[in-house]
Amino acid sequence: MTNVLPFPTGGKPAKPSRKKSHRSKSSDNAYGPALLLQDFDDMPVDVLNTIIQAGSLYLAQTGLEPTADELASPCAQFLQTIQGMNALTEAANVLIYQAQRYPELTDQEPVDWLVQRTKTTHKVMRKLDKMLPTDEFILSSNSYGPDFMAEYATNAAMLVVSYFAEDLLVYYDENFIQTKKDRRKVMMLDYRDAYREVIQDCQIHVGAHGFLMKELASAQRALNKAMEEL
What are the DSSP calls for the chain, one per residue? Predict the structure, then answer.
């Protein structure tokens, strides 16, 4: 899957793609100085970069061929998507903790929305995880059914997690970018666009899967009816 801006790999910092950005010479990186928030252990966290790095955990990079381990594990990308969700959840927890530390500076409604979005994401991912066949079952089966289930679950998971990432960026934008606490607006916009392209791609795949499942269900009903008449 390609996207408008490749997500960083190997923990490397994000690189800018927009040409019309105005950056200070004193910036800590090409986008600007990082805004660090405190987590539950009072450790500094660059939440914006964490949201971006999460994409590198589960989104394939343009031009990179699958590894031998990935080819041997049909469910590998689904498991990587869970890792991405976990990283995003850590970012969400820091944002929620920040709001709890400074309630007088925070509108509670967006915080409640963020908490609910986090819970919903985990709920859907648990359901997808339950329907996912094991690698052993997929590789040993003579049917394409298990492969289809794994492909559907993976695309659905990537869609759900990428929506979660976009929601986090929306929250971060409203609370830290628009308020000028974090000056890396270009960085946020670059990767918001990248996540949005992933969402569009996944919607196409999931839509195709939905159409196929609808047709299969219709064919199955017709088959069952025909078998009853025999």
Answer: ---SSPPP-TTPPP----TT----TT-SSSS-PPP-EE-TTS-EE-HHHHHHHHHHHHSPPTTPPPPHHHHH-TTHHHHHHHHHHHHHHHHHHHHHHHHHH-GGGS-HHHHHHHHHHHHHHHHHHHHHHHHPPPHHHHHH-SSSHHHHHHHHHHHHHHHHHHHHHHHHHHHHIIIIITTTSS--HHHHHHHHHHHHHHHHHHHHHHHHHHHHHHHHHHHHHHHHHHHHH-
Q: Which domain holds residue 132?
A: 37-229
User: From first to last of its 230 residues, what are the pLDDT tens digits of the chain?
Assistant: 444 455 665 433 344 344 444 433 333 467 889 999 999 999 999 999 999 999 999 986 555 566 666 666 778 889 999 999 999 999 999 999 999 999 988 899 999 999 999 999 999 999 999 988 888 888 888 888 888 888 999 999 999 999 999 999 999 999 999 999 999 999 999 999 999 999 999 999 999 988 888 888 899 899 898 988 87
Whether 82 is covered by a domain: the verdict is yes
In a domain, 18, yes or no: no
Indicate whether 89 belongs to any domain: yes
22 assigned to some structural domain? no
**pTM assigned to the model:** 0.82
Count of domains observed in the chain:
1
